[in-house]
Amino acid sequence: MALATATMTPQGYLQAQSRWHPLEIVFWLATLLPFMLFPDYLSLASQIAITALFALSLDIILGYAGLVSLGHAAFFGIGAYTAGLISKFGWGEPLTGLVLAAAAAGLVGFAVSFIIARFRHFTLIMITLGLGLLAFEAANRAHWLTGGSDGLQGISMWPVFGLFKFDLYGYTAYTYSLIVLFIVFLGTRRLINSPFGLALRGIRENWVRMPAIGADSRAHIRKAFTIAAAIAGLAGAVLAQTTENVSLESISFQRSADVLVMLVLGGAGRLYGGLIGAVIFMVARDQFSGIAPQYWYFWIGVLLVTFVMILPNGILGG
Amino acid sequence: MSTPAHDAEDAIAGSAIALATRGLSKSFGSLSVARNIEINLPAGARYALIGPNGAGKTTLINLMTGMLAPNAGQILLGGEDITALGPQERVRRGLARTFQINTLFAGLNALEAVTLAVAERRGVAGRFWRGVGSHSETIDEAYEILSKLRLGDSCYQITRELPYGRQRLLEIALALATRPKVLLLDEPAAGVPQEESGEVFEAVAGLSDNLTLLFIEHDMHVVFRFASHIIVLVSGAIFTEGPPAKIAADPGVREVYLGKRKHG
Amino acid sequence: MLFPIFGVLFDGIAYGMLLFVLSVGLSVTLGLMNFVNLAHCAFAMLGGYVTVTLVNEFQWPFLATLPAAFIAAAIVSVALERVLYRRLYRSSDLDQVLLTIGLAFISVAAAAYVFGTTQQPVETPTILRGSVGVLGMDLSKYRLFLIGVALAVTMLLVAGLEYTRFGAQVRAAVDNQRMARGLGIDVDRTFASTFALGCGLAGLGGALAIEIVGLDPNFAFTYLVYVLIIVSVGGLGSIAGSLIAAILIGVSDVAGKYYAPELGAFLIYLVMVVVLMWRPLGLFGRR
What we know:
Chain A is 69% helix and 0% strand. Chain A has 318 residues and is mainly alpha-helical.
């Protein structure tokens, strides 16, 4: 947070909070490095950008509003399957596919938000877990639509703007994913710095105080949840389009849990936390892909325990 | 239940009743925490609510503000029945309260907290496109409230790092940001060290005369200094009420407070 | 000779009873301490591996290992409570979730390291093998034993809560923590003891589960979902609720596998979400 100077007015102070920090510019310039330094890893870079976008969406409801959701992958999966199905049934234009998929996920998110906004604590955790598992089971059972455990086949994307084809080299994929990530990031950054962002933090900081200042917390939560669902769906759609494949993994509990770990890694409620966490997690997982999964999760476990015990105000307060 | 003295007072005041409760009752199973409570707060009045620990004072405030639903009775704000309204609706209609234990936005600074409260009141808290910094009227109003409570110079400090006395002032600032007509203060100086409690009372004294106040307090000096009328609550029911002199002279009140004459 | 449905019911009830022993500890500690302990089934797994070690390495009789499983899980829980859990009682749900999931991950890795990833067999005592003819049905002796143990646990818990001083302290602390402290009840000790009891029961459940569902390092997570569903549907802090919910889940699971395998777990998740929306604290939850 920017420090206040002697001559700063209250308004000036608040405006300074949303000014771009030089490190942010460095970060975004660094996202261009894979093109030059790691051209063989562009598809991994693309995956990272997609996951970072997904983590950003969860940060809105978890990091800022303080709502624990263990089922956020449901929206990622809905976006992925929607984008995949649109292409499979003949419409392979990527950008419109993105918009439609995000809208679908956002719509479901809006409907679910009415449930979510009514509950807290353990009940909310269990409901989000249950809804996420239900989404997985639904996708699993609906072979005829989703391909079940075989995954959705037959996706074929048209070139972006008729010019840029999604190929095995990954240039188009990474450019596409990065641009989507950046644009949505800009929007999310505005949201966080707006009065609505302040209201979400208020909900996280003190649930009881919000109605006492005349706030309609439920309405705020519904709005945030819908936006987060749409963004998650967008991320899933980018995955479906750039890999021309959708598997059950995209709607699985594992994806919900991993993104939570990423937020913890990078710092929830800090806008860049999800992005940084995604980079660290995905790069590490790629490097350690040789070891057995339970040992990978051993280190995740150690990390989680350490972070929780060390941070003085908890994951959401540090 | 209105007594002849009560009616006379009303007649003399002749003013509108800012907040009233009729037959307000609440029980948890067999435990009765509010019994048939009848209160009339005239506009602009300074009423104190006193009683031994566990008498149900905070419970009464929770009932009035809608945090607790009554089993029976009505609450009227400026003549309007608000019994069925949720807490935020009551705040919108001008009923605000402070909490006995600081209920603040620990991770926000004072400026952000009060700006949020003002933004909620002005209906702009749902806007997500323009930055907070561009809502100049909202910010100015927030800063003005903070300045009046002498929090202006520490408004950039994170709430959890503020000294306790300042936090109590922030409690009041948040309530004032809602532009209430009636303000319920739950032990405004509770837990505040001696050196800082003066500031809190100055703040309370400085509140506008248009504002109707009901405050819970244990310190009798404070009560006699600020209140024009005292309501004594015992075991969930109104034991007696009246002007300070009458209450001070009442042997029953002294008995109820036996062993607790100094503030608890 | 009787319809297979009775066999299904019996198996379902037995399975439900096992799930009850696994879940009741979590229900009580969640209801009492409001602490989300997602490592609960890791304690169960610990109990299971204690039994496996004692039987296979040290030739203990199976039945004798059951109290050992209970005690081992309880002791470990006391240590963890002192060092880690205690500091997070007033922390956010997220912190509690992450800490306990982290512990569960660590336990899975440790189990895989020490015991390998395959299922561990354990020899059941001869008296519990085979089946007994009851009303024309062949009822597995082990499953009858399970039901018996679960009922004994239920009675001991209920009696303990109602009639012992410790039970009274627990009930007081659940009802009103501040007042309980004011009355001189050492609420922290009560928490710690109840937590140990709950984890001990989980350990016992883990040991009992080996014969029915097998034991491998993934046990900590595979059954966590069922346990969470039982606890949230049955109601936090309710022994009766856990019992009823466990039997319901056990029977639906077995019946589902037998009659409608396509439905899978869908029905159970749906039931949980619907129940929670109707009764956020579970069917018999208090508070």
